Amino acid sequence: MHTRTFLPAARENPWLEAVELQESALPYHDWNERVNAECYAANATARILDEEKRIVRIVNNYAKISFNFGPTLLS
């Protein structure tokens, strides 16, 4: 598998130095938490199911991915 990494937009309010509640990300506090739970964490512990939908194995998809890092991320 191959993926291209990207730098997400900053969500911290620079005046408060905190990430404010983002109602569109509910039930999570903000989109950082939601993306982590639904994308990154889900791929770190992906479930392999059998025909009866029972978990037969848990795999880390990141172990099988090659990454490209652009100049912004490396700076």
> Can you count the beta strands?
6
Major sheet description = 2 strands, parallel
Shape: flat
SSE series = EEEHEEEH
| Tally of alpha and pi helices | 2
Share of residues in helices = 10-25%
Mean pLDDT: 83
- Percent strand: 25-35%
**Strand ordering within the main sheet:** 1-6
Integer-rounded radius of gyration: 16 Å
Low-pLDDT sequence parts = none
**Helix-strand makeup class:** alpha+beta
Termini gap: 25 Å
List descriptors.
single chain, 75 residues, alpha+beta, two-stranded parallel ribbon, two-stranded antiparallel sheet, 24% helix, 25% strand, flat
Summarize the helices and strands and which ones pair or pack.
Layout: E1 2-4, E2 12-13, E3 18-19, H1 31-44, E4 46-49, E5 55-59, E6 66-68, H2 71-74
Parallel strand pairs: 1-6
Antiparallel strand pairs: 2-3, 4-5
